[in-house]
Amino acid sequence: MSNLTCPFEIKSDKGISFEESLFIAEEQTYVDIIPNIKMEKKLIFSVEIGPFIPYQKSKVPLWIAKYLDSKNLCKLIPPNWLTQEGLRKLLVDEDKLGQETFCFIDFYYYQIANIYFQLRNDPFNGKKSKVKKLFQDLINRRQAKLKANYKHLTLPKALDVSNLGLIELNFGSNECFHTLSDLQNLWINTLPINSTTQLQTQQYSSQEDEYDNHHYYAD
């Protein structure tokens, strides 16, 4: 996303790539458009769209809206949360809820915004830079809260993930994986030498068993 920075965009070994999450968001999300063409109801890849009446609002999947925009056949209407007023309200709500709770937002909010900021026809009526700045502020606010929560996360404390977006959950799963890996290494390093050697021997034996079983079935 041009002029936007977000560490969540880094691919996780235990999650999905940003490109994959974009594809999912385009498939799952329906948006409002203002078509400039007349078209009867049609079935496209098992998705029913239309009828279109010029300059009358219609709802279509995001991937279709994106295609129509690229052909200059419609203008997309941004969701309420992706407007100046909506983003200001989200920023206020994030502050009111404190550090351990996140405000409700579309599960694919980051992916949807990414698409809207790159459309051929400006859906923000000349206010794209202002909307983009507010959106960046929201990303930074949620990112800081999420990192702070993971930093202080200790068992049996649980993290409320009910209002996190897909890209944040993807980031979070990677953070948890590395945390558990670090804890395992720390535990191994605190074991007596004999116990550590025994543990490594057990792990090696387990790997040998898997190898033997694989070749047994292969034969």
UniProtKB/TrEMBL annotation:
One of its GO terms (biological process) is double-strand break repair via break-induced replication. It is found in: Nucleus. It comes from Cryptosporidium parvum. Belongs to the GINS2/PSF2 family. InterPro entries: GINS_A, GINS_bundle-like_dom_sf, GINS_Psf2, PSF2_N. The lineage of its organism: Eukaryota, Sar, Alveolata, Apicomplexa, Conoidasida. The keyword Nucleotide-binding does not apply. Residues 81-171 form the GINS subunit domain. Transmembrane segments: none annotated. This is GINS subunit domain-containing protein. Gene3D superfamilies: 1.20.58.1020, 3.40.5.50. It comes from the Eukaryota. SUPFAM superfamilies: GINS helical bundle-like, PriA/YqbF domain. It holds the Pfam family Sld5. Residues 18-77 form the DNA replication complex GINS protein PSF2 N-terminal domain. Keywords: DNA replication, Nucleus. GO terms for cellular component: GINS complex.
